[in-house]
């Protein structure tokens, strides 16, 4: 007499275990909740009942099951769209499509099941899971529910599978075929029987393990069974039975009454395999949820494949170095840093956009450590800040073997083709492909240009239309009649609300209210919004618009700025979400009206369209270093007019991806008195992120210039002072280094000085800088050679940064934003620049007073000054004293969220030099290789 393998009993044990497992995982991962989505097409009663059982069982163990029901008229595309939506939902860990599909349309069920993300295919029907199972990769696939349940029942018999003879009746893709594979890879010798098999009884008679899924009522007779065999009956058939209230009863594919007399173990019908299928569905869902959360919350080391460097001497040009390295496919990097496939949109093979949904998926992940790279006051000799950022990231990844992200700005096309060249780093510490990095990338700057100029066009159009139309005509055109009905758009309702008009029916406004709504009454002399272009063009610094015959009499003098100077670029860098960006775009102030009130992009009705143009640009761009460590390239605001830092979003995503023990290295533009100060007081204020360390880049040559070294002229050999030992000059220049160390320490952050070494530096000179830095407040001072040696050349720097970031952080802001604008400006000039005070010129004071009246006092300050000196005077090197800073003008970027005082003449549109960089840039028409870019 056979022992009964009760699926009810075993499935209950499994469900109890799953409930306990979920509770344990919720302790480890707060917010852990496995999600199962069941897609049903049509409304078959039996399918609906079965789904109800699954939902009930799921709730009992702590799985959130969602029933997604589509109508019988649903098309194949609609079903696929429903599945795709679930694929991209991070709260859903398992998806099943209830079969058969009850539909009026032709739908390919195989196509539908294969459209489920492989990792969410908890039915195990995806061709990739089936293929892995067939190849024996059991740990790398999701096992189909019914075969997995059968296997569990076999194991509960207590008998070993290994070496046994197994027979599977039926070869369906849902049960028979995967069951055969499971038994094979559990070391049974398996025979599969089907409708064309000859002499099935004799084959069945040989089976130590018999699994029947043939769909024929009591097909297997008792005398076919080998004595002592394990019999798993997957069949479920209805037969007439007058003794039952329903008039029928359920039987299997095996003649149970006689088979149990011969078999050693047998499953009943009902209560055998059926309950196990649901239990395995829940187990698969919990398994996949656990894997997703472990992957998301895994702060252990990535399995990052590194690209080896082949170093050459002398170091070739930047583009030669970059093109000598073969980058990894960006898909590979995305997978290595635990990004999901649906979170990455490929732009070719070497760059990609990353979805902001990562932040939602990893919201419970602890952030990594946060490092900002800055420098001493820049000189024409260059300090190598970008190169150090990349070199340090390479060192942390390749030398310390830690998770690391570099986050850098996207360069403007203007300087790339003008005088500066590219900004991908240099030597053996670069972002690659450097051509992609420097040219277009994924079009973010083009999106900013389009959005900026759309707003500029609307300003001119609104001025024109208000000046050429009477009140009633203007109102009717702004709120037109559409098939006998007029209605306000959403953005227009927002304007009404700001005006205090509590009406939603356009026909209900009084003439006075309609006029108030329609007329912005912009004062043309107060318009601050300019057109932009990502090209250096000095002849666009002042232009006249409105010269066409149809605009005669409506001309206006204005200008072009370079695209990266647009406030929209600053917003991109400071935004924290799509919603936040939409609101910031709407808050941009473009002018004042004739009563002195601010006029915004929302008032002009254009901010929703701006957000649409920026919807892709908001997502960070994924690239890589020469050594294959990941890089986010995102946003590139001016460092003098704006805050000069890459995006908050890139940093936030990077900090989640690297995990608690990882490090994100970001870079601040220009010297510590500009980029770092704005990083702390503006970027960190809006991001809420707490930095752990500052890397302050210096060179012996640049410090000598700050000590009073001779002028450097492009194209002329360096004066001897810079290539021969001169300790006196160097000592004097170290005052600038000391002041910048002090500036960082004011924020409570440890400073590691990176001495970017050159072959002309002598041991005595380098030792002097190290000694000075350590004695003047630096946590450490380290010699680096990453330009020539890649990550290995920044290994000591990486160790020092790792130690510095392990210290407790005592970060604090320099000022309270609620202080007056004047007080905040004075604090920055005295504390950071070393000035005696400020002198606010009358025009600037008038602007400050206007911003206060308009309610903008409590914004942080973004000082616009020369980057070539700690003072406002570019000729003053070192650490000047005894100066007063004149504030000649004060402007506001309300959408970005800062007030920016101008300390001198700030050009927002560079010009091309006599010999621009583009003289050397070309393309090989045969290989399509970019030439001459640097």
UniProtKB/TrEMBL annotation:
Coiled coil regions in record: none
EC code: 1.5.1.5, 3.5.4.9, 6.3.4.3
A Gene Ontology term for the protein's cellular component: cytosol
Pathway in which this enzyme or protein is active: One-carbon metabolism; tetrahydrofolate interconversion
Record keyword DNA-binding present: no
UniProt record, GO biological process: 10-formyltetrahydrofolate biosynthetic process; folic acid metabolic process; methionine metabolic process; purine nucleotide biosynthetic process; tetrahydrofolate interconversion
Entry keyword set: ATP-binding, Cytoplasm, Hydrolase, Ligase, Multifunctional enzyme, NADP, Nucleotide-binding, One-carbon metabolism, Oxidoreductase
A single GO molecular function term of this UniProt record: ATP binding
Domain Tetrahydrofolate dehydrogenase/cyclohydrolase catalytic positions: 5-123
Family note: In the N-terminal section; belongs to the tetrahydrofolate dehydrogenase/cyclohydrolase family.
Identification of the protein by name: C-1-tetrahydrofolate synthase, cytoplasmic
Species annotation: Mizuhopecten yessoensis (Japanese scallop)
